[in-house]
Amino acid sequence: MSSLTSFLLVLYSTCYIVLLSKICASPEDLWDHQVPSRGETRSYYYRTAIVTTQNGYTARNTDLQLEARADVAGLWDGETEEGDKLLRLILSDVKISSGRKKHIDVRNRRTADLDVDRVLGPGATEHLSAETLFCWRRGQVQGIYVLPNETEVITNIRRGFISLFQFQLQPGEVKETGLFGVCRVRYSVQPGQVTKHVIPGSCQLSHLKSAGLSQVLEWEFLSQVEFSFAFRNGVLTTANCLEHHVLKLPIQESVSINATSWQEMQLQSTNTGLFTGAWTSREEALNASVSDHVWKPLAAATLPGICLNCVKPKEAIKSAKKLLAPEHVASVGATRAFLQLSQVLRSTSASRILTLLRKEPPDTLPQIVDAVVATQSPAALKALLKFLNFEGKTDTDPVLLERFLYATALAPLPSRKAVEQLMTILQLKIASTEVHHSAIIVLGAVLGRLCKAELCHDEVGKAAISFLSHGAAHGDDATLLPFLIGLANARIPSSVPVLLRHAAGASTQAAALSMAALQRLPAKFISAEAQITLLSISRGEGSTHDPAIRILAIETLLMSEPPYDIVRALLDDLHNATSEMARFVLAKVAAMIRANHPVSLTIQKALHDPFIKNYDFLSRDGLSSACWGFISQANASNITYNLDILFSAKGLMRRSNMDVILQGHRDALLVSQVTLEAEGLASIFGEGSDAEGEDTIATARMSALLFGVQLKPVEFFHGYADLLSKIWSSTGEPTSAVKGLLSLSRHQQELVLGSGLTLVLHGDVALGIDITGNIDVSIWNAKSTTVISSKGAVVVMATAAVVTDHWKKGVEVTTDAQVQFDTTTTVHFSHSPYLICVQMERSTFPYREKTVHFSAYQKEEHVMESERVRVVRIPGAELPLHTANSDMCKQMFA
Prior knowledge:
This protein is 31% helix and 36% strand. The chain has 26 helices and 29 strands. The strands form three sheets. Strands 1, 2, 3, 4, 5, 6, 7, 8, 9, 11, 12, 13 and 14 form a 13-stranded antiparallel beta sheet that branches. A hairpin with a 2-residue loop joins strand 12 (235-249) and strand 13 (252-272). Helix 8 (332-345) packs across helix 10 (365-375), helix 12 (398-409) packs parallel to helix 14 (433-452) and helix 14 packs across helix 15 (459-474).
């Protein structure tokens, strides 16, 4: 028994001494054996693989798998406590393969070997086998030495392998300079194992351009990178890296692509006896070993001139010619062709773009201009400004000039250069007054996007703000309106005083535009003093008596989230309002409550007052209405509509407004707003002035707002004589409010993976749109019909591909839909009271999802390896409005 006890005590003491020696070891001892020492060579088996697929689906292909033998030898060890080492890397037996997947594990795949030199470039096999040196100090790679003529693809592959030798043996969070640049990484340490987690967003993993017209349309990129290292007796035996990268559009759950990359390094053998010189310094060892090599950092470099769609611009335009005809603008085919063309033109020179523009026929030229603007490249802007002439010295069509301006206004990326160019254009003697006004409006839109990104505080931004504010404050009747629309698009908080002054002015149109501009400002910028002013306007005080303007003031006030006292006063004032005005406001208030507007709780509190909450107050007669409802509902997003119609006391339509709103989890976007305004129509039908004033001229106009950009109003007629003239000369064709092809969102990213290979991620959202309006007034039949037709096609495309200088392989996910909405308002004046029927109809349309796996050698056509298509037919429907409208429509069309 005593012998056993003695043995256990000796064993315990020995273990304790060994453990104590490990704990008390000097820092340099800890790094002694992790990597090869001088004269030692370690051979590793190295493999890396990449898979790209649509998120949520099982991966079908290994896009690229690279295998090699790696020999790492120690050439020189420093004698200081810093633990410096100079190591040599030689890659051999390099194989590249690609093929169909058998199991999810990268180890179990059927693959087809590829020619290394065709995939990585001529001479790649020879270049990979050339020796590379790297400096290593206490788990950190200080740099690498490669041949000066080596391509970035080859150098990045070397960097990817060498990065597996970068680790720390102490737990905690540190800043580390590695393959991805300077990053924050978190280390976890266990006996024989180290885990390194790269903190997402802490380093610049890629070259990225991403923007959307709103947060709702922005792409979301998620990334996770983790390294694991295994040691045996202090020797690094295994190193692995696992990466997951996801690109998705949050509002469209099906458009999401996933890229997964593995790296694996396993120690195979260790040899000693490598002859090395008696070098006393690292520099001496370098000069003796590789005097012709050049130093490069471990941080990877992206490949220059990457293109996923390498079609020549001339060929792209030729193939898209029929699809881009004017009558097809709002089709899926045209939108897809526009998207592909804009991708091709992003890397095209200014001279080539200019040549293409000059050769394009007039019917498709506006669509080509849309595609050139959508690239938002300096070369594209330079070519367009040289091609278009704003001073009238050439026969440039004013419609084409306006097409360029509004495409610029709706471009997703904020551009200081675009603001500069618009300011330069406005200094010219522009031949067309309409074009000059459009340039002012567009300046406000581009400035607004710049300010939203907090980039308008420099001299360029301040000059543009001053130009718009001065024009709105001091402009005459002829120039005031475009400046007010420009301020509405810019959404500048400092413009509130001048907007309030015009809102209380005598001009109905200027007041309406000012109210619209105030409604688009965040509620926090409408001060208590501004709310008091709006309350005065709503009561008809001062020079404001028009019911339409008073109601706009009430809407603006409610959207500014006023306190209880003001909401209570607004509702109380309705006791003295006309029936139509009271009915409209009450319907608007009810719609805001149903839509859960921020002010809805305050409204509900005010409605508890018995003086307001009673039958006499809430049952006012009238034809005016305000409706809110869903167009479509999904898990990730909803599309809702607001339809407001205000009638005069005589039953004539004064104002009709329809909003289409896209709501995501993070934000909401006003997709479109179409407003019809009419005044002075009572005199045409012998009904008197209808409280609009005896001098009110019969006028009807339409204005449109598209993705937050207010466009120039379109006038149907101005005056009785003009109305008669247009009735006799009318061809029955509707008036176009907006027509074009737009890039709504863009994500362009080149990502260097842990293996050193390049992953390209592209995401695009494009829209083809055609909004028209038509007012048909029949004096003889005492009937009017107003039709607003909105045709649109949306294409969403996401692509992930592994790319080298000579080869690419990946997946492309596309969804598209083409739909038409018609809003028809019919009024019969022969009945007393007038009959009004509003109908909102959505056409039947196909919704398509398509996933394609492709591969190709650069500058060759894509080879489709697999394809999956799903088509769903969405039936048409008439959107439900309120019950009173349905009853009147039944009576009218019985």
